Amino acid sequence: xxDDQEMLARxxxxxxxxxxxxxxxxxxxxxxxxxAAALDYVLGLCASLGFRTKNCDGQVGWAEIGEGSEMVxxxxxxxxxxxxxxxxxxxYALTLTENGRAYGRGVIDDKGPAMCCVYAMKDIxxxxxxxxxxxxxxxxxxxxxxxxxxxxxxxxxxxxPVFGITPDADxxxxxxEKGILTAELRMPLKNSxxxxxxxxxxxxxxxxxxxxxxxxADGQPITVRAEGRPAHGSLPEDGVNAISAVMEKLAAVPExxxxxxxxxxxxxxxxxxxxxxxCGLEDGKSGRLTLNAGxxxxxxxxxxxxxxxxxxxxxxxxxxxxxxxxxxxxWGMTAVLIEENPPxxxxxxxxxxxxxxxxxxxxxxxxxxQPAVIGGGTYARAMNGIVAFGPMLPGRELTEHMNNExxxxxxxYLCRAIYxxxxxxxxxxx
Length: 430
Prior knowledge:
Shape: globular
Oligomer: single chain
Number of domains: 2
Strand content: 25-35%
Strand order of the largest sheet: 13-12-11-16-17-10-18
CATH superfamily of the largest domain: Zn peptidases
């Protein structure tokens, strides 16, 4: 398309906004100055493209085209996880390389897909095609925190879509998502056998670095460090957990007597599937439970470990948390569930997924890939009738939440075309 370069330029401007939620929050910017700036930017862009726009008290925003009593929703998020370390390129910028890659924090999760949808809507508006439903892109600001007050605000105060998509997962379509649990395990620091600890940036990211300090035989502090490889918390096996690496090193220190290290090695170690914790659950619909030890820190007088757990769709929260609490209690620890997103399971043969699958196959020629259930959590959980659809194509490297996050430029162009056709079908033909 003639303005693909314009889309990339606007994406670069959006990536330059460091929109990590929870930093410098205020009444005017409830999720922080970065997400607020990102929302102002995209609403201004959408208005310049001819969309109707609304900023909903800084909680969420939307931009809309078309006419009709019903509305198709496109749910995106503008917040990002922290950049972390180990980048070869500036994380808060768009870097295009000779091998066709576009680097930057948020380029695949979720600013790049959001921009593809904005320009897909522009293409529809410019074409003059007749639609029977409006198309509204809804911009969330706190998806990565897991709390989703932004979408709760939208549901309470704004019009609900009849159905729609969220471009924040995989093609060809996602018809189910595992439950997401975040748990905090605490042990009094004085009982842990350690002096200090710091590892990880978020529960839903495989930690890239960790350092732990303990008292040596002579009473002097000794610090042990390790580096890992970050990955999305729903796929801990794709990364290398730096906390686990440090615990393995500490377990090999003969003079160290640390109940926390012993607990970690007994119940977590390098097990990504909850088996050592006693919650190694699995079902035929969504596969195995995954468990990510995402953050290790000192919080007041406690040593705090945050776990991110993805539970199969047919199990209950208690079937997961019961064994976790029991394992923690046996070592003098407490385990508290601090965040829960229940699993969702949709009709894979329903009209929306069927329509999206037809579009995907028409645009890509891929007749083999099938709709799936994932461990990740998307805004499909936030409203009825929403289906996760792209942007990841089968076989592509997963780089969301990792350093050197990238997308292929040709994939961004293809996503724009796929989303245009999908929205035309949902708003005009279904």
